[in-house]
Amino acid sequence: MRNGAPGARARRAASWVFGTVEAEHDARVALEVPGVVRRVRYVLGERVAEGAPLVELDARDAQLRLRRSEADLVRAQAAAARSEGGVAHLDAQHATALASLEVRARDLERWTSLAARDLASRDRADQADAQWRAALLEAQRLAQAADDARAVAREAAAALDLAQATRDQAQLDLDRCVLRAPFAGVVAERLVQEGQWGAAGTAAVRLVSADRVRVRVHVREEDAPALRAGAAAHVLLPGVSAAPPYGDVAARLPGQGDAAGPFPGRVEGVAAAANPRDRTFAVDVAAGAAGGLLRPGMFARVVLDLGVVEEAVLVPDGAVVAEAGAHHVFLAEGDRARRVAVTLGPRQGEGRLLRAGLDGPCEVVVEGTGLLFDGAPLARLGD
Asked: Where in the chain are the domains?
């Protein structure tokens, strides 16, 4: 059996986990209106800018609808203008009728007063009364006509609004005959062909962001409390050789093996709840695309910075024994093994940090621990 002498000191803890590279933006961009694909303006793997045209549909029907709606809008504008002019004309006539009514009212009062004093004939007073009544009826008629004209004007205004909305919708449908990139990215899949008819909602292209990616990983529940948004991280690609042209991208990390990287990243977010199946927490790590090397779907290894653990002891994984929810290690004391309960800290590569349980210099059994029990005899390798 082999043993080691761990030393308790402040150590920077890290968690080594695996995950899959995901695009920061990954969307299947769909047709917004139905139509026949007239032109596909991208190729697989092409970088496109935000707003760049991707697919053009046959727009002849949309153009005709726009022309028709524009003609309807012109008619509605003319009808609204006529109705507004009619209202203004009737309001002017009504104002004149009210002025005439006021004059007739004064005449009636004057002739009635003169007839009462026998200074004018009764017929003249009756004539003034008839003229006042005629002026009153005319003022009332014009008031009603003006009210009716205003109602017609309101309907014309509503028809104008509807015509404007119809025209705007026709313009929008025409604009949507050209499908544009919602964000800058790289074409990941070509999903339509020229001449194909597609309904609204048919996916036409898969677009992924080109400059930013994230890696979704899952950490053990004992590591999750130490992680915070903004924590440092490094991303490695085990499936990509670290040899040139990628070997000089960044300094190598201990234990990374023949893997490209590491590429700098940061913790974007940590899940608020654990997965009930395996008690792990999802963590999103944001990173740059490393010149296009980090691509969605790639397998990645991520090193998460868990901060500094004070007075921690680092031991190999094989030294820690789990039993009934507790953890312990075996110390070599002479030719016997002594079991000691320990408190685990974060995982550190292929080892574990121990927060408590070991005090002072000691020898820890690191191999064959599955066969040991408290007080078991030991035989050192090489003895």
From this structure: 3-23+210-371, 26-58+177-208, 61-175
**CATH code, 26-58+177-208:** 2.40.50.100
The sign of the dihedral angle between the CA atoms of 77, 79, 80, 82 is: positive
pTM above 0.85, yes or no: no
Q: Taking the CB of residue 141, how many other CB atoms lie within 10 A of it? A: 13
Using N-to-C axis directions, what is the helix angle for 122-175 and 60-116, rounded to 10°? 170
User: CB of 24 within 8 A of CB of 214?
Assistant: yes
Q: What is the CATH number of domain 3-23+210-371?
A: 2.40.30.170
Identify which of 39, 44, 36, 35 has the alpha carbon closest to the alpha carbon of residue 55: 39
The total of other beta-carbon atoms located within 10 Å of residue 234's CB is 22
Each of the 383 residues of the chain gets a pLDDT tens digit; together they read 444 445 555 556 677 788 888 888 889 999 999 999 999 999 998 999 999 999 999 999 999 999 999 999 999 999 999 999 999 999 999 999 999 999 999 999 999 998 888 888 889 989 999 999 999 999 999 999 999 999 999 999 999 999 999 999 999 999 999 999 999 988 999 999 999 999 999 999 999 987 788 889 888 877 787 788 888 888 888 766 544 433 333 444 545 555 666 788 888 888 888 888 888 889 898 888 676 777 888 888 888 877 666 556 767 766 777 776 678 777 777 777 777 787 766 666 566 666 666 766 677 777 767 777 767 787 766 55
Comparing C-alpha atoms, which of 215, 217, 213 is closest to residue 288?
A: 213
